[in-house]
Design goal:
three-stranded mixed β-sheet, globular, 26 helices, 5 strands, 597 residues, 3% strand
């Protein structure tokens, strides 16, 4: 889509915009809700120092906190999504900033609760639960709070850490505003003589163009522009890494990685197992790269060749057609699940198309009290269809959890969230390969899923290794500069993509990855696709009993720890086996495409 083709928001039909009015009918209504919940923060003070004096007081304190946090979540989500519609809109930037401050204030106001709970023994908390049935639903929560006792500070320190959340998150916020609101990439001449302006949303789409010279111009232009903000991005990332480390040390962890994983009770061995297993099987990734080089007929594979489809021609896939494919694909998960997907798409869950200054990428949002919301930048291609399936997996996970669990368990860890999204991708592939007769479309589907395996299992593991190495360097007292990041990232890229000839631009690729500002987040994409691959195999082999186990997994939210939840659904992520199985499945897809050439 050229710069001139990116529409203004008001040019898009309402049916293709998410319905935020369902949350707040107007900004004035939002303002009233904001002020109301802000006024309620003082209610928490009444419980400070007496949270566990008796069972009724404990129940009242937890209920008050939940009521406040639910309202804070509603005003925060609305403000953030309005801001994401147009990241250059300063009015909604201001609302979002106010909501972030309110969220920090609410966390600070409630920060005494868990330290006071941790003053109790397990036996004392069990006695309180026995005295008030309303506390029974908190039993897993209490276990989790006591588990974190060695890493929870005094009430005063916890309040200070909560107050500092805006400051410690500033690196990511600066990066977000720089890349989404301030950066504009120069236009590039297309093969037909017209111009197109690369954006964060369309960059990889442009790299799928068949004209190799055009792909190189896009890549050079894109990464040259990143070079102009090198120091700003480097400083933002450096400070984000520092914040991760400082917060981990403040909570008595040896490393930032350990702190991040322990939040979900994931042993660091799971992370190491992923890195080791993938690194030991890079030959499969190298086969895919060599296949791409041979199919493209080039002497040297370059970074601007990696996204070029193996399948000939292009498949134009309008949003309405993609919707139909996705709804049909999730049928193995049961009629209720399938109906929910269809109804959600009809109920304006999705903000479909790219518009001027809209946040790039895609996500599933919303709150416990709202319908799910999905931000998309749909590009009329197969990749966008897979992204829609992916985000709907998150949305259904949220909806089923919210309907089944009390608020305390309404969230879920990213470790399991990425399973829910990737199961839908795998089912979509199975459905399309089974039902689509057009041979070109089938080849594109096979190529797309190969790319998703490559970019999710291998690329995200490479990102995880980058995060691990840069944090280790900083923890050892080394300076994290743009040059250091280039070197670390370049070394990893050379190892993972051995058949590719490196260039300076791709060494700077770390600069364009927003997920690096969510400390040790990306590895969960790789574990997610591994678990999802195993679960889909089980669902397709065993039918409804396995689908029922999977739906039960989705409905549990955070009532159990992630590894336990996945074991209940039929996969053990403490073992290397799911990762190995996923790599084998990827290898089978590579072999299938090799047989077609």
């Amino acid at each position: 889509m050229s710069a001139a083709d990116v529409p203004e928001r008001e040019e898009v039909d309402e049916q293709y915009k998410w319905d935020l009015d369902a949350m707040f009918a107007s900004d004035e209504e939002w303002e009233a809700a904001f002020e109301a919940v802000e006024d309620r923060l003082d209610e928490l003070e009444a419980y400070e120092g007496r949270v566990t004096e008796d069972a009724d007081t404990l129940a009242a304190a937890l209920e008050t906190r939940e009521e406040i946090m639910r309202e804070v979540a509603n005003v925060s989500a609305y403000a953030r999504m309005r801001s994401d519609e147009d990241t250059a809109d300063q009015e909604y930037q201001a609302l979002s900033a106010r909501a972030q401050s309110l969220s920090a204030d609410a966390s600070s106001a409630a920060s005494f609760i868990e330290p006071e709970l941790q003053e109790c023994t397990r036996e004392e908390l069990r006695d309180l639960v026995a005295e008030n049935a309303d506390l029974e639903r908190y039993e897993h929560y209490f276990d989790d709070v006591l588990r974190m006792k060695p890493h929870t500070r005094s009430a005063e320190v916890e309040e200070l850490l909560a107050d500092l959340s805006e400051v410690t998150g500033a690196g990511g916020e600066v990066y977000n505003m720089l890349t989404n609101a301030d950066m504009e990439f120069p236009a590039v001449e297309k093969p037909d003589g017209s111009e197109v302006r690369p954006t964060l949303s369309n960059f990889t789409t442009l790299l799928k163009n068949r004209d190799r010279d055009f792909r190189q111009r896009v890549s050079d232009t894109f990464y040259d522009e990143w070079e102009t903000v090198r120091n700003a991005v480097g400083t933002a990332y450096k400070n984000s890494v520092k914040a991760d480390i400082k917060l981990a040390r403040a909570r008595n962890y040896e490393t930032a990685r350990e702190a991040s994983l322990d939040d979900a009770n994931i042993p660091v061995e799971v992370y190491d197992n992923l890195l080791d297993t993938v690194e030991a099987n890079l030959d499969t990734l190298h086969r895919h790269a060599e296949l791409k080089r041979d199919v493209l007929g080039v002497d040297e594979l370059r970074s601007w060749d990696l996204y070029t489809p193996l399948a000939d021609g292009e498949v134009d896939l309008p949003y309405e057609e993609a919707r139909e494919h996705v709804v049909e694909a999730v049928a193995p998960l049961g009629e209720d699940y399938q109906n929910r997907v269809a109804e959600g798409l009809d109920s304006r869950w999705v903000d479909v198309y790219e518009t001027a200054n809209k946040r790039s990428g895609a996500y599933s949002g919303g709150t416990y009290d709202s319908q799910p919301y999905i931000l998309m930048n749909y590009q009329d291609d197969i990749t966008s269809m897979y992204t829609l399936a992916h985000e709907l997996g998150h949305s259904l996970h949220s909806e089923l959890t919210s309907e089944t669990q009390p608020y305390v368990y309404s969230g879920y860890e990213i470790f399991v969230a990425e399973v829910a999204s990737t199961v839908n991708e795998a089912l979509l592939t199975e459905h399309l390969l089974e039902t689509v007769e057009d041979e070109q479309f089938r080849r594109h589907v096979l190529d797309e899923y190969l790319e998703r395996f490559r970019s999710t299992l291998f690329r995200q593991t490479m990102f995880a290794d980058f995060e691990h190495r840069t944090h280790e360097l900083a923890e050892d007292g080394e300076a994290i500069t743009p040059d250091v990041c280039d070197e670390v990232y370049g070394d990893l890229k050379s190892t993972y993509y051995e058949p590719m000839t490196m260039d300076d631009g791709i060494r700077r690729e770390w600069m364009r990855i927003p997920h690096f500002y969510y400390g040790f987040y990306v590895y969960q994409y790789a574990t997610g696709i591994s678990a999802a691959n195993a679960l889909v195999d089980r669902i397709l082999d065993e039918g409804e009993p396995a689908a029922a186990d999977y739906r039960e997994f989705l409905s549990k939210g955070s009532r159990e720890y992630p590894l336990e939840l996945l074991r209940g659904a039929g996969v053990d992520m403490a073992s290397p086996e799911p990762v190995e199985q996923a790599i084998d499945a990827y290898g089978d897809l590579v072999a299938e495409f090799e047989s077609l050439t």
